[in-house]
Q: What sequence folds into this?
């Protein structure tokens, strides 16, 4: 399934051009998609298609488009956050410069839509529904990204837990969980269960909080730099909890430390923040919220999935959702 | 017609949101579209729709989408070129920061497609043709932009006339002339004349060269900074001609001057370049090429348009094409 998905992703992209500079452009368009990745969202979509009673192949191009979405968004996110690396290699804009990378992301965005415009397996009405679902997901993701970026711009570190949850619901949860599950239903020709959005939001939020927690656990090796989120001053539920409980003077200290540029932060700075996080139990708090959200989301999802036609496929889908909820890396 | 087009552009965009930060995001999405502009491409499309025998209203949403394309591309172009102003106000990224502006451009891009996905006036097959035409136009534009940006990245100033023409054909001509004319035919339910691409390319290239020429004519007031293109070291046909004719030592001098950062360039630097341009007649050369291209393009376009059903409308379309070919500002 993963192999077919990888093939579908790459075959939606242009391969070569007689003009060398444009051949190079096409290679850049293929760069992030060729770096691989877990293809988590595409696989969720395919398993959801199967669980809704269709062949998973029915959802293959739509799953590939969802992966292309992830890839162009990552190119642009990496520019916006000035990230250094992506999947073990330099971020595209670090290697090619920001202008070239931005334009490559735009081109990849268009190839995503072109794939969706020329789906073979659906009626015009189904295709229209799929297109509107995609636009809805991407618009919400951009809205969540805007909240996050506008806090960065305002140098606001003391966001509340509610603000954080709203941001990650928009930015991560829709396109990571409820979106793929809903798209899978649509690919199988069924209307998505209305409860998928709230259940998927719970699980997606848990997934993101868990990501934030793992980043601050030195004993976990999950491929990202330990405490990188503190160096980047990323807004997390951990910091939201900490700001809500720290004293006024500690809040001031935190803001000063977080506001430093990434390369100006010392190991001592990071340790000071980690000590405060420990003092107020903010990591444990975030972990508990993640577990509660994951458990509530999973339990509702299982109810929904129990009503679906293809129960043998539901087992596989549930397994993937559980691993996503509990993610250890 | 212009008023209806303006309304169609703005009504495709989100208006308000109960969450203040997202209401602000929506205002940013509407920012460039609300700044107005000539709406040249949208109007061309509407006149082409009418000339092909349909009511121009039939093309209104497609014309609005083409204007939205122009607007999200301008947000991203302004970031890529680090432009200071757009339509008399600061460029979006100058006011909001690059990350926020980049994300606003992505959101606007999605609203463009959403408008095209929900056209009322067309059959599914017609809509599919329109969508593929749009994707084709945007991909070519991105390819032209890549050529331009990769020359900037490589600090290549000595591009040949052929390379320049290839770049502006991709980057400007398709979406400015042949694209709107072809889309107008499709909106009227007719297959576009195959000669529209070459005729539109001639006219679009002339339009761009004329833009470059006007920038170096001090007596022309057309809303952009005199010699701004030299400060920005923009690749133009004028420079292509100059590099092809200057001596080796002059080429070296030119490269040194152009390679300086914008704010390091002095008036003397610019005057040195202008003197060389004058010595080799590069401005006159570019002007002649623009006139020859415009005249060849217009003459072929008139042939094509003479065969169309609505000759009263063809008169209006021809007038707009002529003003575009001769642009004095």
A:
């Amino acid at each position: 399934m993963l192999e077919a998905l990888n093939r579908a992703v790459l075959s939606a992209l242009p391969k070569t051009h007689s003009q060398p500079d444009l051949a190079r452009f096409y290679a850049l368009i293929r760069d992030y998609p060729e770096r691989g990745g877990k293809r988590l969202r595409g696989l969720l979509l395919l398993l959801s298609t199967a669980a809704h009673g269709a062949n998973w192949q029915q959802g293959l191009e739509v799953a590939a488009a969802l992966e292309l979405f992830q890839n162009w968004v990552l190119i642009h996110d990496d520019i916006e956050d000035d990230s250094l690396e992506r999947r073990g290699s330099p971020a595209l804009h670090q290697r090619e410069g920001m202008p070239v990378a931005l334009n490559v992301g735009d081109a990849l965005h268009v190839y995503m839509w072109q794939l969706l415009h020329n789906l073979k397996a659906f009626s015009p009405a189904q295709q229209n529904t799929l297109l509107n679902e995609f636009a809805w997901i991407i618009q919400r993701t951009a809205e969540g990204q805007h909240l996050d970026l506008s806090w960065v711009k305002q140098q606001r570190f003391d966001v509340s837990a509610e603000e954080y949850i709203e941001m990650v619901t928009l930015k991560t949860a829709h396109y990571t969980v409820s979106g793929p599950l809903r798209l899978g239903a649509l690919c199988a020709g069924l209307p998505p269960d209305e409860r998928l959005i709230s259940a998927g939001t719970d699980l997606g939020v848990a997934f993101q909080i868990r990501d934030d927690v793992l980043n601050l656990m030195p004993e976990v090796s999950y491929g990202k730099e330990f405490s990188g989120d503190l160096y980047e001053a990323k807004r997390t539920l951990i910091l939201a909890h900490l700001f809500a409980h720290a004293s006024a003077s500690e809040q001031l200290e935190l803001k000063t430390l977080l506001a430093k540029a990434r390369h100006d932060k010392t190991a001592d700075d990071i340790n000071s923040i980690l000590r405060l996080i420990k003092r107020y139990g903010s990591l444990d708090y975030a972990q508990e919220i993640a577990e509660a959200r994951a458990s509530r989301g999973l339990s509702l999802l299982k109810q929904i999935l129990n009503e679906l036609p293809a129960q043998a496929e539901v087992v596989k889908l549930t397994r993937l959702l559980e691993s996503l909820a509990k993610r250890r890396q």
